[in-house]
Amino acid sequence: MIGQIVSHYRIVEKLGEGGMGVVYKAEDTKLKRIVALKFLMPTLTADPAAKERFIQEAQAASALEHPNICNSHEINETEDGRLYIVMAYYEGQTLKETVGSRQLAISKEQPAVSSRQLAIDKAIEIALQIAEGLREAHEKGIVHRDIKPANIMITDRGQVKILDFGLAKLAGQVRLTKTGSTVGTAAYMSPEQIRGQEMDGRADIFSLGVVLYELLTGRLPFAGEYEAAMSYAILNETPTSVRSLRPEVPPALEKIVERCLHKERDKRCQRSAELIDDLRKVQPELSAMNKIPVKSAKRWRRAGATMLALLLLGVVLFYTRTPSPSRDLKSIAVLPFKNLSDSKEDEYFSDGITDDIIAQLSKITDLKVISRTSTMRYKGMNKSIHEIGEELKVATILEGSVRHAGNQVRIVAQLIDARNEGHIWAETYDKGMTQIFTVQSDVAQQIAAALKAKLSPSEKGRIEKKQTENPEAYQLYLKGRYHWNKRRPDDIETAIAYFNQATEKDSYYAQAYTGLASAYVIMYAYGGASGVESKKWFTHAQQMAEKALAIDSTLAEAHAVLGLIAEDRYFDWAGAERHYRRAIELDPSYATHWYSSMLYVQGRFIEAHAEARRALELDPLSLIINTNLGDVYYAMREYDQALKQYKNTLALDATVPWAHTGMGSIYEIQGRIDEAIVEYEKAKNLAQDIPFTVSCLGCIYVKAGRKHDAIKVLDELLRMAQRGMNVTTSLACLYYRLGEKDRAFEWFDKAFEERDIWLRFLSYDPLWDDLRAEPRCIALLKKMGLRK
User: Fold this and answer.
1) Which of 28, 77, 539, 589 is geometrically suited to a Cys-Cys bond with 369, CB 3.0 to 4.6 A?
2) In the prediction, which pLDDT does 169 show?
3) Percentage, residues of the chain above pLDDT 70
4) List of E strands, 344-497
5) Strands 331-334 and 396-405
6) What is the pTM of this model?
């Protein structure tokens, strides 16, 4: 069928074939998108039962909308009567392909088992996402009936998609008997499915238990060379315990697997939500275990023969919990280069060189590069290279120094193995300012070669590309970045001045325009202007980002700025996502909380969590990214996890206002009003003139019965409005809590017109469930594109 046109779909290639259908990749010629078409097998066309089951697949799948379930668009029929479903197309691999391709053998004696094991945290994350998708289906009365690795897709973004609800049926309909067709793969079938009994969601939980067992141990829990033998094992035999095959698996996780695989369904997890809760409770225990250093084999040998079992455990831990040596080596943190210039005012220059080397390395897809925010926290610290590597979870550290005098620069760089503090590579560069970009390019390429990181021709071209030929423009740009990184309002204004001067020296300096775009966005985010002023900052930011991309379309930061503008100014969520994804594609190490924030505002919590974790891995000491992960848990209503994450943030820096706001919100939900007031007061004092923190305090005063204090806060917000500050959403919320709903919605409407950044919280914040039930709020969210 390759090349044929079916309706308005052009068949491109065959993707796969199953017991009931053939799947093709196709182009939707109307909407200009790639889709997947699943056709009923030609041999079954005349079979009314098979045809009915195929229709059932479409009806069941179309009722499900969830990030972890493959979306179906329509069902149709060809001119010759063949039925087909149009489904979303995803780039990635099935779980079967992913596990089957792994080459992490622990020993020669067990290659078939060990090579199929996944890291424990990865296995849990996959199981969690599968369970999330099943929860959505089970709540709608739909049972999948065929959960197995071949029906689980892992997209290139790491998201799990459950495929093929083709064997799903509404619970309670059409009983499957022993004499009926065999449904599913025998190895993953539940006992009740083998017996032909009634099935409900607990059958899927059993199948998921089989999948999780396989991910953890590398083998199936039940053995059988043919279907009847496999069925007998499932019905009568007890699987080998998980921990006997992989001792580092937490005992609590082993119990979860055993419970899922119980032959009596009444003794399994009864609901997917219950399984999700159990799995999430294991994650903190796993994190604690991973902090325990793995002992070397040499040390264990000195302990004598009685320690043999522990030796074996150490080997298993090394090969299964950490990456292979070559892959592990491809991770790097660039520490702040020391300023050895005579003038301390040249600090901007050494910091700028550090930033640009990080930026160059980040263009290499095969490298994990820690972001600037985290590495800069080590400036002036006396920690060892080994300690820093452990804290940032990287194998290598680049450190160096810069001496700047007139038009001459000396840069000394050395790459160190953080695991043993051995030197891998070092170089000294004595160059003129006109050759500074050549130095940065050479450092990046030398490191890639030393770490055996793949460097594509396009990446090499981007690294070697000079952003400017003007040394003065470059130094002005570095001064702008130096002040931009301080993030204080007065420093942002200074940064804008320097960036403008840089563009005056070189009108084609794309990075300087990007710096301006980012600075204007921050000015908007600070809310220190009226709605008219906010639109002005947006306009300037958009113009600068577009100008930067017109000169150099590969600037990730410019795409990220346009993503933020698309969602906050235009409520163009699809456009925002395109820009964010493009930014990450261009710079895999680019860490920002903006994309994650957009995802949870849309209710796409699983994706938001995955993106937040990715950003945190790349920037583990970033205060805003740490806070954002807490915000994701809060939006998901995982309050214990959120509280823990906010406390983690405050352990890094106790002055982060948003972490205090998050804790206050959780305490408010839990009815711990006095504690909530304390946190909100801290947030207000730390944030100073940010209106939303003021509003939070006023709202909690209302709940505490302190209406007089709430009115004082209201007056404070009105005075802020008189000073030209954007307080629209903040005032609306407080008026709503004071019972003045009409006035509240007047201010919500103003917030919409002025594109107040805080308005988005209406879509998800658990504190405002009552507000979201209001018809006027529903209408407002529809205008924002956050409700269908």
Assistant:
1) 589
2) 45
3) 84
4) 368-369, 396-405, 408-417, 422-432
5) parallel
6) 0.58
